[in-house]
Amino acid sequence: MSECTVIPRDLHTVSRKGMTNAAMRVLYGLHEAGYASYLVGGAVRDLLLGGSPKDFDVATDATPEQVQEVFRRCRLIGRRFRIAHVRFGAEIIEVTTFRGGSSDGEDEDGEHRRVEDGRILRDNVFGTLEEDALRRDFTVNALYYSIADFSVRDFTGGMADLKARQMQLIGDPDVRYREDPVRMLRAARLAAKLKFDIAEDSLKPIATLAGLLDEIPPARLFDESLKMFMGGYAVLSYLKLEELGLLSHLFPALAKISEQDRELIILALESTDKRIAINKPVTPAFLFAAFLWSSYSQRLERHGELAPDQWLEAASEAAERTFGTSAKRVALPRRFSGVSKEIWLLQPRFAAMGVGRARRLLRHPRFRAAYDFMLLRAAVDPQLQPLADRWTKAQEVEGADFDRLFQPARGAPKDDSEIPESDGEAPTRRRRRRRRRPKSDAPAPAE
């Protein structure tokens, strides 16, 4: 049995002022209904570090059905272990019942343990507060804030690791990573986000167990990728994945890329972090366009010299094959891969001359994303800088000044010899429909 350290209110920095109204209503609602009620996980960790949590999770001894009785707007999800989602306005608070079972996957009766694809799986059962703490992943995520007396409960030494600024797995790291290999990615992500070190015993097994990530469903890896690269600390996450040898298990194509292509990726990640910092919208499509640009470019080069009427079909095929192979470990939904493809296919149009072409490109719905991507390319390839400067100026001038930027020099090829324009979709042959002659309302001539 683990010893519980109780940190009273005057010895920690968790404050209700840092919690949302929805989190407070759930915590007090369960408490007033007679149930144990604790804020847990990343929210407690971030509040102790002086941050502002984005999500608030609550742990309780109430069953999911009992939670549903307390809160009117409550929906139960999950099959192996039911979780309650309580909604207040646009915010959802996740409420979980204390989980039972051992922390190392070795239940005494063996009934809750099975092995599949190198991962140890268990069916979840209800348990006590202590058992719930021991089943969590990292010690700094196993701290509980009690709404009853405003204390923090620590069963795993999380407060000490928080002060030491290190990520420490609870239990045997080898077993815990086998239970869920995604914990290796979480270790990298949280170490990057918090700027923590990974404890030596939690770090050592990653080198030999990284291959277990290859058995994880692509959709789950995509979700984890979003957390790593769309949370405001994308550059640090990328560098940590490189350091731990995990990057190639997400994007095999990045195992061997040039320094220039790597620099482009880093710049794309920096741009994303900056936009998130000032609350500007971001999309994974832009990052994936950077991640896979090298792979796409190499595939397109294999076609050799192409006539203008052949380029679009070849480029579209290269893009589709890139997503089908280089991105298969992290399944990018088509709503994003389609945008990435448009960004790629628009790149040659920045070099094309002609006022009409320039104006049409400027009106393209993906112009801004494609332009930003072209700026990244110019940053790593000085030969493209004049092109980037021209298009930057084109957005600042109008009329004759705009026209002069794109008037072809004498002897330059005509527009019909340039790269064809594209909306990002592969060309398809359409069957021509025969027009029907409209019926005339005039009376038929008399015979």
Describe this structure in words.
The chain is α+β, with helices and mostly antiparallel strands and 447 residues long. The chain has a domain at 1-164: Beta Polymerase, domain 2. The chain contains 21 helices and twelve strands. It has helices spanning 21-32, 42-48, 64-70, 129-135, 158-164, 173-179, 182-194, 200-203, 206-209, 218-229, 234-244, 247-250, 259-277, 284-291, 293-301, 308-325, 334-346, 355-362, 367-380, 385-394, 399-406; strands at residues 5-7, 37-40, 57-60, 74-77, 83-88, 91-97, 114-116, 119-121, 143-146, 152-154, 166-167, 197-198. The strands form three sheets. It has an eight-stranded mixed beta sheet. Strand 4 (74-77) and strand 5 (83-88) form a beta hairpin. The model is unreliable at 102-121, 425-430 and 442-447 (pLDDT under 50).
CATH topology of the domain at 1-164: Beta Polymerase, domain 2
What gross morphology would you assign? elongated
- Quick one: how many beta strands? 12
C-alpha end-to-end distance: 108 Å
Q: Looking across the biggest beta sheet, what order are the strands in? A: 1-10-9-2-3-6-5-4
CATH architecture field of the domain at 1-164: 2-Layer Sandwich
User: Which radius of gyration do the C-alpha atoms yield?
Assistant: 28 Å
Mean pLDDT: 87
Helix content: 40-55%
**pLDDT < 50 stretches:** 102-121, 425-430, 442-447
Query: How many strands, which pairing sense, and closed or not: the largest β-sheet?
Result: 8 strands, mixed
CATH superfamily of the domain at 1-164: Beta Polymerase, domain 2
Q: Which CATH class of the domain at 1-164 applies here?
A: Alpha Beta
Class per helix and strand makeup: alpha+beta
Which percent range describes the beta-strand content? Answer: 5-15%
> Number of DSSP helices?
21
